[in-house]
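Recall that a protein's primary structure is simply its ordered list of amino acids. Everything else, from secondary elements to tertiary packing, is in principle encoded there. The following example makes that idea concrete.
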Amino acid sequence: MLRSKGRMLGNQQFGVVRMNKLSAWLVSCLLVLSAVAGYAQDAAQIEAGELLYDEHCASCHGEKLRSSGAVPDLRELGAGDRVRFNQVVLDGRGQMPSFHGQVSEQEFDQLWAYIRSRARNN
């Protein structure tokens, strides 16, 4: 018999306690692994987005999203501005040309990941 918080535990109860601790440990490990995998995926999205930004956007919006002030500073876009971002990129606005048909949905996601990684207001 083992003691747990002042109570006697039989062998069967002790096994349940050990299994619960093992289950909790396994769940914790899985959560950490999924977070690491998610981070790696996010990092790949951001890197791909940076390449796309350099190719399509940097000439007007500035290197590393540093706007000269003549065009909108993309670092000011908030998490809730994704729909507006998509619309402006697809349709164009003012002097900005439309990128409709030039940027895939996956590339939109990559561009957005890059912009959000450098956002001033998360």
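The first helix runs from residue 11 to 56. Residues 2-117 form a domain with the Cytochrome Bc1 Complex; Chain D, domain 2 fold (CATH 1.10.760.10).
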